[in-house]
């Protein structure tokens, strides 16, 4: 382990920058290096793929003349999309290159229309307003960036005003049926290209106007659960922004209205599933990643999420493929596993994979999330192009290349599984797991090491099969059994531990020279108080199913 730690310390990102495609990339790479993030593993299969991802990330940063660098979707997608690049992608990037993330958010505010509509896409620094293309709640992504990166109130106020105006536009133009739900007028409103969800519905709005729906369609407007859930969640976070800025607003009450409309019009209690409601007041009975999208918007309590895991997300007849999650339930005859084109008809999409942690971690389902991350990291370790989607059967990468959600999935999943992750709530997560050889016995990492700088302290984490260690500025401050997550505050003070495997982990943690005994179940959180650990949350573990 000492040799691996020394190799981690010797890694020089900028020293590897002699083959940059654009000289402007050097500044982006330098900012990544200032985060202190490094990863080393033995053997080096996953490590090599990881640094390939870091350098391909540079292909996804646009440097337009007179404008700050911004994130692009990547590959064939020339521009920045609200549903992804401008929300969840930028939210992940905030932990690595925050200036690019911040500029990516701000361009949507800069280009908003006078009536409040923000563009669904910005390409070559020009806004495009054809559809709304909304999935991940923009306000949550902005709020998390604000908390992680210095609480810049000027940034927050600018984004709050833009997103509040966008909410008003949606209420005025996408509630034509008066239900309180947000309506989808076309397939591209949700980014569900080629999904059977929108068979016999146009890809784009009527006359390319986001405020118009085809008057001759017998099906749309749909009461869309993912759009409604996104607005619900954004309203919760707009409420947090308003409070932070001292603005009087009723966002919480408006969020509750959205939540009630969602369950009233889009939730089928018999199936325990969220469906679109078509123009004829019928459910569009297609089980798609609509469910995961809604849950990732913080909809539902712990019981609903556990039930969704059992019936759907961890069900190998539904979405829990060998490489989860499929975009359509596998037992639906419309399911299409092919991944060689831009499709939400079945293939595993990286956007689903980077949205998923919000759903799982909201309900303390950390163990179950590792069952998603492990096979995906095996697939990522083999990637050379970083395409948009995977074959759910083989894990082979599919359509396009240098796709930022795939690249950021690599960075995010490594950090969540075996790295040091700073949360918006002010915690640091040191996770003592290793990538497991899921595919053909191919070893990804018998040992790993990870580094990150937080509050000017250089932290390092080394993980072995049995024992893990935490260092601060080169001095070991913690030693603990593998299979748990150690949680500290941003100053490195011990707060809690979390069970990260299905089995109970029992042992002792050595923290700053004092040992403390513990026993923690899977998903259980033990708070550290008064020199001992006390259980604060113990939801158990939901097992994968087959029926």
From TrEMBL:
Signal peptide positions on this chain: none
Positions of the Mannosylglycerate hydrolase MGH1-like glycoside hydrolase domain: 133-404
Record InterPro entries: 6-hairpin_glycosidase_sf, 6hp_glycosidase-like_sf, MGH1-like_GH
Coiled-coil zones: none
Protein name: Mannosylglycerate hydrolase MGH1-like glycoside hydrolase domain-containing protein
Organism of origin: Cohnella cellulosilytica
